[in-house]
Design a protein that fits this description.
81% helix; 0% strand; 10 helices; globular; mainly alpha
């Protein structure tokens, strides 16, 4: 029953994640934290694996369809930065868990950071029509931006999340659907480097392989469904779904903060 619950959560999160370009981890991580079935380190790892499976499908499908919206002059340096950021973020998480034997404190910190990021993202999305955007093309700046995104996503165990979209909106003047595809591209690279680092350093938490298979399978299936829906709905609908999702995530993270602190 627990296995099935994990699979359904990952499927639903990946559907929405593929539509909005947020990867799904920003939903999976706080929802599984709220259930409290596994510790925060295990959930972070499994969430990252699920997001990687979904983004791998989405990126490969986009490349094969030859309808990609990714501008490699921007996307590649962002991905390079995100890859390095994924390594740094994983190291920071390992350092934080080593400092504190109480994993609930780490969970509270993650939930608090994610809450701040989500509130900021929601405010920007609501008022973005009043905010002048940039159109950065310099590769060095793109690498730095990608680095910061990779650190945040890897440390929080969310894959990429809503902050990717805000950054792509503001710094690169992308529309909603273009930002969604580029966000998944960045998430793919940050998560694959984060996973490889875990494998090479042997810092893989204990879990049932059945849970991983169901979560990864739910992620891939969700990516398939989400990508198909993304092509059929309007940008306005995607934006409305994104705002609703941010509000739900805010409430879940507030609940998790109180849960971990008590």
């Amino acid at each position: 029953m627990i296995f099935l619950l994990f699979g359904l959560i990952c499927f639903g999160a990946s559907v929405v994640g593929a539509i909005c370009g947020i990867g799904g981890g920003v939903i999976i991580k706080p929802v599984l934290d709220a259930f409290g079935i596994l510790d925060v380190e295990t959930i972070s790892f499994l969430s990252g694996c699920t997001v990687l499976s979904m983004t791998t499908y989405s990126v490969l499908k986009s490349k094969c369809s030859k309808k990609s919206c990714i501008d490699q002059k921007i996307g590649f340096p962002l991905a390079v930065g995100a890859s390095a950021g994924g390594i740094i973020g994983k190291w920071l998480f390992s350092f934080a868990t080593a400092l504190s034997p109480d994993k609930n404190k780490i969970g509270a910190v993650q939930a608090g950071c994610l809450l701040l990021v989500t509130v900021g993202t929601l405010l920007y999305t609501v008022y973005k029509k009043k905010i002048a955007t940039r159109n950065i093309r310099a590769a060095g700046v793109c690498i730095i931006i990608g680095l910061l995104l990779g650190i945040m996503s890897s440390f929080l165990g969310i894959g990429g999340g809503p902050v990717n979209l805000v950054v792509l909106f503001y710094f690169f003047s992308m529309d909603t659907k273009t930002a969604a595809e580029n966000s998944l591209y960045i998430i793919f690279f940050s998560q694959i480097t984060s996973l490889l680092l875990s494998l090479f350093t042997g810092r893989i938490p204990e879990f049932s392989i059945g849970i991983l298979i169901l979560m990864a399978g739910g992620g891939i299936l969700g990516g398939i469904v989400g990508r198909a829906l993304n092509q059929k709905i309007s940008e306005k609908t995607v934006e409305k779904l994104f705002i609703i999702l941010m509000i739900v995530i805010i409430f879940i993270n507030v609940f998790n903060i109180f849960k971990f602190m008590n």
